[in-house]
Amino acid sequence: MKLTFVGAAHEVTGSCHYLNVCGKHILVDFGMEQGADTFENVPLPVDEAQVDYVFLTHAHVDHSGMLPLLYARGFRGQIFMTDATADLCSIMLRDCAHIQMNEAEWKNRKAKRHAGIDVVEPIYTMEDADGIIKRIVPCHYDKIVEVCDGVKIRFTDIGHLLGSSSIEVWVSENGIDKKLVFSGDIGNYNQPLIKDPQKTEEADYVIMESTYGDRLHSAQRPDYIREFTKVLKETFDRGGNVVIPSFAVGRTQELLYFLRKIKTEKLVEGHPDFPVYVDSPLAVEATGIFQKNIYNCFDEEAMEIVKKGINPISFPGLCLSITSDESKAINFDDTPKVIISASGMCEAGRIRHHLKHNLWRPECTILFVGYQATGTLGRVLVEGVDQVKLFGEPIGVKAQIRKLEGLSGHADKNGLLDWINGFKQKPARVFVVHGEDSVCESFRNCLEKEYGFSAYAPYSGTRVDLATNIIEYAASPIPVTKKHKHVSDVFARLVAAGQRLMAVIQRNEGGANKDLAKFADQINSLCDKWDR
After folding, report:
1. Which fold has domain 224-403?
2. How far is CA 351 from the centre of its chain?
3. Which is it for strands 165-173 and 151-157: parallel, antiparallel or unpaired?
4. How many CB atoms lie within 10 A of CB 169?
């Protein structure tokens, strides 16, 4: 009955935790690291092909983005998640694969022009994304699910994203019963569209995020409509565009919610009919999924609009760009406009093209509406750089750089404390993860000294015996000393196939001798063919 911390330990992205319980190998999230890495993450304690189950808190890439790689390396188990998360992952993981394949193609074109640059393979392919999507098991909120002998789970709405959840995990092994709660990303209160985070009452261990564990949102709910309208009017009066790097799933739909109100009430004086472009195929598909899940996930305010027969995230003048030609045409239109495009941290996708066309124009505004991780282009722009490089070309930063303050999908320090204090009895231990290095430590210190929790902020590799509450191995931080290339080669896929073969062999232990002999003959025949 062990818990090992793998990713998002003293870091904000790359969430991954490993459970070894009841003879099963289980991952909670398997996310992609975004921005600059601070510390090295340990590899998974088992080969990917030996993983039996994954429990996914929500669809954001820093929690789900490496699932296709899990499949590429031999995983053939089940992935449990909420219904809405399943809908979102069906498009987001394919989009991730598309990005990986396009980036590898671009690097290989570059390699042909420069001698000595190795050909690269994408981290994973569309085939891997399709394969992992077929392993998904959708689950309803608030329903206990029997995963296997000794393991039950339940998903609770945590208010961070459509379908997001905390996960309760009940484990019964060798006469010992323990309950773990993984918070996932805890949502901010009073967000548009989705419900507020729900609390959980009991747990032996809590694994909770701390993204904003050192800061507070405004005491009063910001007037997003007023601030947004002000930015729009000032920019349109100058004849410029408002370019918004936005997460395709969640934040884009919130912006459409605001823009519908702004346009309906004609709040931008002198510019009542300004066009709005959503330039992200993923965002367009995600918006459809939001509409599909209205009755399960929307809050009371949004439902009041729905009951009046109004679509809360659609309006006249909304243009959805799907093809690359439609995307390119946006920047050849001189009409002042709103351009919403992914990715939200400016690390990939069409937003980089819109930045190239608008950053150098002093009449334009680049409006940031979400968290910018350390090392990302978005963080660099917010911090006030004078020049950036896009597609190998230096671009001067002349546009206004603004932030829509207070618009956050993450709970602040008080929100995190409110959630953890919702437990009727203090857990035996609270593990603080998913925060920048100093934030994890400061929030842990707050929980322990101000609120009396037994709290610990593990580094990657830390292992805990859940039966005894003993930290068997307290990992030390290992600073990143080299820049990792997020690519894999064909030989790595071959090694992964071999690992899967071993996993299949182990799972066939105890089978009929006749079948095992046939299996062995097939393997030997394959080895004879390739043993040169």
Report:
1. Rossmann fold (3.40.50)
2. 18
3. antiparallel
4. 23
Q: Are 44 and 71 in contact (CB under 8 A)?
A: no
Per CATH, the number for 2-216+409-473 is 3.60.15.10
Strands 176-182 and 165-173 turn out to be antiparallel
Query: CA-CA distances (angstroms) from residue 403 to 372, 400, 492, 509?
Result: 11, 10, 42, 58
CA distance 236 to 336: 6
Q: Residue 141's closest CA among 209, 88, 86?
A: 86
Two tokens, residue 213: 């564990």
Tokens describing residue 251: 């934040």
Distance CA 319, CA 302 (A): 22
Structure-block tokens of residue 267 = 């709040």
- Edge-first strand order for the sheet with 463-465 is 136-139, 78-82, 53-55, 24-28, 16-21, 2-7, 463-465, 470-473
pLDDT tens digits, the chain, 532 residues: what are they? Answer: 999 999 999 999 999 999 999 999 999 999 998 777 789 999 999 999 999 999 999 999 999 999 999 999 999 999 999 999 999 999 999 988 888 887 777 777 766 766 666 677 888 999 999 999 999 999 999 999 999 999 999 999 999 999 999 999 999 999 999 999 999 999 998 888 899 999 999 999 999 999 999 998 877 777 889 999 999 999 999 999 999 999 888 899 999 999 999 999 999 999 999 999 999 888 999 989 998 888 888 988 889 998 998 889 989 989 999 899 999 999 899 999 999 998 889 988 899 999 999 999 999 999 999 878 778 999 999 999 999 999 889 999 999 999 987 778 899 999 999 999 999 999 999 999 999 999 999 999 999 999 999 999 999 999 999 999 999 999 999 888 754 444 445 666 677 678 778 878 877 888 888 888 888 888 888 887 787 6
Query: How many CB atoms are located within 10 Å of the residue 43 CB?
Result: 11
Measured between alpha carbons, how far apart are the two ends of the chain, in Å? 44
